[in-house]
Amino acid sequence: SFLLIQYEGAYLTDGKALSNWDVFTSISGKIADGSHGKVSVDHYHRYPGDLDLMKDLGVNSYRFSLSWARILPKGRFGDVNMEGIDHYNRMINAILKRGMEPFVTLTHYDMPQELECRYGSWLNPQIREDFEHYAEICSRHFGNRVKTFANCTSGGSDIEPLVTAHNIIRSHLAAVSLYREVFQEKQKGKIGIVMNAIWFEPVSDSLADRLAAERAQAFYLTWFLDPLVFGRYPKEMQKILGKDLPKFTRDDLKSSKNGLDFIGINQYTSRYAKDCLHSVCEPGKGGSRAEGFVHSNAIKDGLALGEPTGVNWFNVYPQGMKEMLMYATERYKNIPLYVTENGFGENSTGVLLNDYRRVQFMSNYLDAFKRAMRKGADVRGYFTWSLLDNFEWISGYTVRFGMYHVDSNTLERTPRLSASWYKNFIFKHTSSQSKDDA
């Protein structure tokens, strides 16, 4: 997987406009090390070599996101930037030439700053028109070769989260309707969604904490997925938020009947869930309606759930991968799944070529992935995060997820132990599959 600001660089190159993340990273104190993504790992110019690294590993698909601000610098209020279209066309052709399939995420947290300035982006229902227009441009220019499109809806906003999430969901439904009506029959592609997915374990066996774990999923994951599959918000949210939940239109509900061809799961970590609805919680820890009256934490009785990594949000708990895939399988039945992100991050600005902890992580999580498949999870693919060290959002370059180290001065890529391990893993499993098929 490669995602835009984390990899691409080429800030304002070839007609690209400012994105919301370009602006955010320029604000002093927002990024841990004061860095930005203006260059990142310069994938924009170095993608041929990076694709060669992927081909050498043996991967058969490449997930990446497009820059909305590179394709439509002013959203629907301006022209298509053909330099941006031409760049992605060259990259898609290069991917196919190397025998890999492109798996395209339309937007991953970023958008033209123009839309933020004009009307507040996801806080305004107008964003639906802009996203639909953007999806149409991408489908028209790339859909003859890209057979898998996704939108990443994870997150939303700390400001008015219910409004933000509602506009994200409605925008996705508009894009799905457009794709199905105009492009899908001819292009024969799929459109789905990618979600960050944390597995929540009840902090105790009490009924209150077990229900709290269910509420935690409702207020984190199924908040977005249930409307796209069932046409309604999760019952846990309805019970707590009631009339404060935004309403869907008749057209939204019509679109939701076939809103997903697949679900992408970004699965890294797990947490405990503690009830704060019927129990006493410390002030500020899950006591709000917007959190479902749940306090989530990776620590119980002084011990971590799984193995701490040094990255504050991230502990290693492979069982959470299996549980998450089985949960999605049981809740959403016939909808195929992809693990769209999974990987190991370390707090380091060093080289760390002997990354044995990453190798152990990948081995254990892939084993949990296989256990879920054996139990009936319809998982169609796995994407590791990540090929290269990169710009990790508010952590900047202080956290390393790459199977390849990237020198911050020369941008030279150097393989770590995990790259060799992953190459052998892929070879072993594709070889055994070939023998099974023979």
UniProtKB/TrEMBL annotation:
GO terms for cellular component: vacuole. Its EC number is 3.2.1.147, 3.2.1.21. It is found in: Vacuole. It catalyses: Hydrolysis of terminal, non-reducing beta-D-glucosyl residues with release of beta-D-glucose; a thioglucoside + H2O = a sugar + a thiol. InterPro entries: GH, Glyco_hydro_1, Glyco_hydro_1_AS. It comes from the Eukaryota. One of its GO terms (biological process) is carbohydrate metabolic process. It is an enzyme of class 3 (hydrolase). Homodimer. Belongs to the glycosyl hydrolase 1 family. This is Sinigrinase. It comes from Brassica napus (Rape).
